[in-house]
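User: Some background: our group keeps a shared notebook of sequences we're curious about, and every so often someone picks one and asks for a predicted structure to add to the entry. Today it's my turn. The entry only has the sequence so far, pasted here. Could you supply the structure so I can complete it?
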Amino acid sequence: MLMEQILERENLIQALKRVERNKGSHGVDGMPVQNLRPHLATEWYNMKTALLQGTYQPQPVRRIEIPKPNGGVRLLGIPTVLDRFIQQAIAQILTKIYDSTFSENSYGFRPNKQGHQAVRKAKSYITEGYTWVVDMDLEKFFDKVNHDKLMGMLERKIEDKRVLKLIRKFLQAGIMIGGLFHKSEEGTPQGGPLSPILSNIMLDDLDKELEKRNLRFVRYADDSTIFVKTRKAAKRAMGNISNFIENNLKLKVNYEKSKYDRPWNRTFLGFSFTKSKNPKVLLAKQTVKRVKKRIREMTSRKSPIPMKLRINKLKQYLRGWMGYFALIDTPNVLKNLDSWIRRRLRMCLWKQWKLPRTRVRKLKGLGVPLGKAYEWGNSRKGYWRIAHSPILDKILNNVYWLHQGLVNLYERYTKLRQT
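Assistant: Of course. Here's the predicted structure to add to the notebook entry:
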């Protein structure tokens, strides 16, 4: 039986390690991840008995709001660590059952699949002449999933009623907001280990419909992009697929965000494409704006943190950011970003030096002649302007910041592309 597979020792150990590795915040019970293993050591027999008998009751999820880069908030539900552990164990078994049946054009939340593969696939479609795209945006997908529809899909392959009952309990566990309980009559709260596999199961019928219509497409989670050759075909595809989503899947299409256009006018997983027969992958304008906004926060001269700590935070962020965006074919934008980041740091350093006599002393220590050190140390120019002055450009250059531990995006990009 499926419940017994979920509760097998090896599956549970894998789930426990995964939850511990992911860490994450506490749920409504306040238990941190560090307490999960000792708690299971004493309470697992009772939990296992409840799961086998179908009496296990998940706790409500803790609702938090994450600001979106383009405004608004993304609603996340944080289950308790115990519920995350059980959800992870279920998700691992469901993945074994379902993943091999999913479309090869589905890339989100799947083993051995990633966003870079989706972008390369999109690029190949454009190269083949499919130069119109239909971006299908589902309105608050994770909050709008119809429970009955999803359970009906699960019943096609899952016969163990205990597992079906447990999944429905997780779907209907409710939400705690500001200490008040709210029922959850629809949706799969984004934030739990079970939501990704359930979303792929829910949207698999959409993938099959697109394949049946012989449409080229790429789907990453709830973002579906369809590639066609003409504007007329794009308009027709958008109308037909919107009807299918709303009538068959009981989901809502966000018509304000769903558009058909040229691929170089759209954003795809943070990337865009050049307008050519052999398109190049480039950073989307929104991506550049987002990374600059984040860096501005970390290099704000109003934040009086030591330069070493500031650079360590930047290094951690930039390494992860570059690890994802190294896919681009147009690296000159990285040189511009590097230059801009160094200027931001020079501005912070100039603010930290603060007093004219301190600035003169620091400049002299960096090898600036006394006359020039006195001239610039007593300058009344603004922080941002003086951060781009010839004297600071020369002494606080790329080599200086590399010695301080700053990540050079262009050099990092070059190394990543060579591996």
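Suggested note for the entry: The chain has 19 helices and ten strands. The first strand starts at residue 61 and ends at 67.
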